[in-house]
Amino acid sequence: METKTDIKKDHSSGNQISLIVKNEDIIHAHITLECPYCSYKRIFKNQFSPSKMELITVTFKIIDWLTCDKCDHQLNFALDFFI
């Protein structure tokens, strides 16, 4: 299915630009967190609409700092999107 996006500029202020996604299909995401030093592994699944895509940036920033519960090493993560 095709996704259509529009970029609209607010002409009154001249500097506000917004991206509007018109296809509201659900995006499925799978995140695998794994410790490179021990056997710790967790898989998370979530789904969201394309209009909420900016929230994924916040998630990435949080995941980047996660450490292992067992050995305190920083976790590796793999991310899969199913669009």
Short account of what is shown:
This protein is mainly β and 83 residues long.
Tell me what you see in this structure:
- The chain has 83 residues and is mainly beta.
- The protein has one domain.
- It is built from 1 helix and 5 strands.
- The protein has one helix at residues 55-63; strands at 5-10, 16-21, 27-34, 41-48, 76-82.
- A hairpin with a 5-residue loop joins β1 and β2 (16-21).
- The protein is elongated and about 40 Å long.
- How many DSSP-defined strands? 5
Order of helices and strands: EEEEHE
Distance between the termini: 10 Å
Q: Total number of helical segments?
A: 1
Q: What's the SSE blueprint?
A:
Blueprint: E1 5-10, E2 16-21, E3 27-34, E4 41-48, H1 55-63, E5 76-82
Antiparallel strand pairs: 1-2, 3-4, 3-5
Offer a few descriptive terms.
83 residues, mainly beta, 3-stranded antiparallel β-sheet, two-stranded antiparallel ribbon, 1 helix, disordered N terminus
